[in-house]
């Protein structure tokens, strides 16, 4: 799931109890420790001086959240602080992932993005991604729909 700012930006669009349950499940200490220990998942961080302004999480092989294709790389998360959006941070992160995927001879990069996140969808389309399917994504008990988007390399 690459929700491009879902955790902060879209909090107001979700039921507070569902949103809290989602945060506890997806970003709790146990979940993050498991992700950090996974050899097929990687985190990359962007700083502006000493301020963490964004990060990206990528998955490969069996650690991909949906399509477990060894010929692909998943962008599960890409987050940029609101005050740094529109400054090229997200585009730079995306460029780095595409470069890594090419170096690893991947055929495509894919992600999931909330269907109501029109800003992110436009960003991904401008970057060459296209929609090729959907899958359910849960925020607590609330079943939402993510677009599956991919960029062929």
Automatic annotation (TrEMBL):
<feature type="domain" description="N-acetyltransferase">
    <location>
        <begin position="1"/>
        <end position="153"/>
    </location>
</feature>
<keyword id="KW-0808">Transferase</keyword>
<keyword id="KW-0012">Acyltransferase</keyword>
<dbReference type="InterPro" id="IPR051556">
    <property type="entry name" value="N-term/lysine_N-AcTrnsfr"/>
</dbReference>
<dbReference type="InterPro" id="IPR016181">
    <property type="entry name" value="Acyl_CoA_acyltransferase"/>
</dbReference>
<dbReference type="Pfam" id="PF00583">
    <property type="entry name" value="Acetyltransf_1"/>
</dbReference>
<dbReference type="InterPro" id="IPR000182">
    <property type="entry name" value="GNAT_dom"/>
</dbReference>
<protein>
    <submittedName>
        <fullName>GNAT family N-acetyltransferase</fullName>
    </submittedName>
</protein>
